[in-house]
Amino acid sequence: MGSDSRRQFISDSFLVIFLCLLVACTETDSSDYFPLREGRILEYRQIKIIRDEVHESRQIVRTLSPVMTDGKKLYRLEKQGEIKRYFNRNEDGIFSQDQEKKTPFLYLPISLRNEVFSDRRWQLPSQLGVVESRTFARQDRILNRTHRVVLRYSVIGQNVEVDVPAGRFRHCLKVMGIGSTLVRVDRGNGIAQVEIENTDWYAPGVGLVKTERIEKSDSPFLKTGRYTLELLRYQ
Fold first, then answer.
1. 8 A C-beta contact, residue 152 and residue 178
2. Which residues of the chain register pLDDT less than 70?
3. For residue 216, what pLDDT is reported?
């Protein structure tokens, strides 16, 4: 091999090493459990089981261009064509707020450096969505009323594997929220307690890939409801 060939070989070798390092850096940057990047589109399959009736539908989530509010860059998440929430990230985690309530609340305990504060406990607002009455009385229809509940969350896994229609995802972050609320039953003559358990899986570089939710009660007037959200495709 001549000197020119050797120089070209060395140059090519350094180029290969540089490209490998570049790919490695890209993979590191894509390790974020909740990417906030304009133009992201995620399509989910959601299944609700209410009183043994199965309801299947699709959900499209888009990340729109950010807006500046009070000096902070807020990313807008659009679901089914409607902007639902705004997200912002700082050293304390990922925070969310809706259009009506300007006070942000902690959504996920993940810092700017993608560090997971695994020992942190936080709360998220929610509402009943799948448990239903065993009777057909109009006043017992829980889905016709809004029952707000606060779920208490914690990280229960950081290296979890999960299978969804979009594929198998490894090294996922798994979080769980639990809570309870009271509802009126038996045509308004009684009160029953509903227990909620919500589990989410977040894949690095992708975001939310799966949700499982169970709403149950010991009341003979109520029937357990279930909800599953699974990622179909993303870009």
1. yes
2. 1-30, 99-101, 139, 143-145
3. 94
The answer to whether 60 touches 43, Cβ cutoff 8 Å, is: yes
* Helix-then-strand count for the chain, H and E: 1, 15
The pLDDT value recorded for residue 72 is 82
Radius of gyration, CA atoms only, the chain? 23
Amino acid letter, residue 160: V
CA distance 160 to 13: 37
pLDDT of residue 83: 77
The pTM score is 0.82
C-alpha–C-alpha distance, residues 21 and 109, integer Å:
29
* Alpha-carbon span 167 to 231, nearest angstrom: 9
Angle at the Cα of 175 from the Cα atoms of 174 and 181, rounded to 5 degrees: 150
Pairing of strands 41-50, 82-90: unpaired
Concatenated DSSP letters for 39-88? T-EEEEEEEEEETTEEEEEEEEEEE---EEETTEEEEEEEETTEEEEEEE
Q: Residue 18: enclosing H or E segment and its boundaries?
A: helix 3-29
Fold of 31-234: YmcC-like fold (2.40.360)
Residues in the chain: 235
How far, in Å, are 88, 103, 164, 188, 235 from residue 38 at the CA level? Answer: 13, 23, 24, 47, 11
Cβ neighbours for 189, distance < 8 A, ≥ 6 positions apart: none
The pair of structure tokens assigned to 12 is 């090519």
Phi, psi dihedral angles at 220 (to 5 degrees): -70, -10
